[in-house]
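Need tokens for this chain, all 176 residues.
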Amino acid sequence: MVILASLQIVYGKYFTTLSTPPSIARSIPISLAKLSIKLLLYKKEFKQAISKCNNSLLPGPNKLTWYYLKAILKRDDCLVNVINIADSCINLGHWLNYFKCLLTVIIPKSNKIVYNQPKSFCPIVLLNTLGKLIEKVVVERLQFIITNNDFIHPSQLGGLKFKSTTDAGVVLTYIV
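Here are the structure tokens for all 176 residues:
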């Protein structure tokens, strides 16, 4: 409910600043009944998100690899517990500190003459694996809600599924 209210506020502020708002902007205010997509997360969403994860990626500070997390979440009771944790985080509007833990690994870049400057190193941040999974599912859901309810201007290309550099090139070539 909090997420939907926030989206309505952002939607209202965003489209009132546009000089030529899209046709959907004329339908403000949007009723929450239209957006009453169940915010509870589903097993299918988690299974799809975890299937896309690469087993060879390094684990975060909890030392839990994607391979083992996939094996654990094959059991329905474990998956239900993870979904309950995610739903609770969403409903309370609080992200647990456990998911905020990170591990930074500093890797020296190859072919550097001197290693006494920061640009000679590449820091890699490893986040909590379970937190990353929940974030993936929430991002998928938010993007679905945002795109299906026209909260994003049609010319927005960055950070969206099925939008690419090619789309931006077409817009620049033919529209601008």
